[in-house]
Design a protein that fits this description.
This protein is mainly beta. Helices cover about 5% and strands about 50% of the residues. About 30% of the residues are buried.
Length: about 170
């Protein structure tokens, strides 16, 4: 059974790590996990109709904040449990949100260049859910989701905090 929801992903993609890291929830990475777990019988699959990820990048002299759009995807939910899903991330939509004017343009160009994400050769990334935990003590997220994040043909298993909002659906 497919139903449409608004799914807002709040996550962190750490662009690179340095000795000084921002405070707050952080993505954790490990080797790629592989295939999704079996989707539970009775789980509902929802199509993504709107989504965005927030990112934080740290550097020795500070940090930068930004967003990137989730282009398409599906998520499988059983009750309040996330049991699977896959998302396509539009890397061409990567934009810093903590700068303005020329500084913003320079950072955006730098991140999209060969120095970082090579957007010309790799306009899309993917996130494939491999596990999830419901969280009640984090005000800005509802779940900690683990998944294989593929950027520039490199895949790492990453755990990110996300916020799922169901519009017009009651459990």
């Amino acid at each position: 059974m497919r139903q449409t929801i608004k799914f807002f992903a709040l996550g962190l993609i750490l662009l690179y790590s340095c000795s000084e890291r921002p405070t707050g929830a952080k993505a954790k990475t490990s080797a790629a996990a592989g295939d999704n777990p079996q989707v539970t019988v009775g789980a509902a699959t929802y199509k993504l109709i709107m989504g965005q990820m927030n990112w934080t990048a740290s550097k020795p002299t500070g940090k930068h904040l930004g967003t990137v759009d989730i282009k398409q995807g599906e998520i499988a939910i059983d009750g309040e449990d996330v049991v699977g899903g896959i998302f396509t991330i539009d890397m061409t939509s990567l934009v810093p949100i903590d700068l303005e004017g020329e500084k913003k343009s320079k950072l955006e160009s730098h991140l999209k260049s060969q120095d970082f994400f090579s957007i010309d050769q790799h306009p899309k990334s993917a996130f494939k859910i491999t596990g999830a935990d419901l969280v009640k003590d984090q005000p800005s997220s509802t779940h900690n989701v683990s998944g294989d994040l593929t950027i520039k043909e490199t895949t790492k298993n990453t755990t990110i905090p996300i916020n799922i909002s169901f519009v017009g659906i009651k459990f």
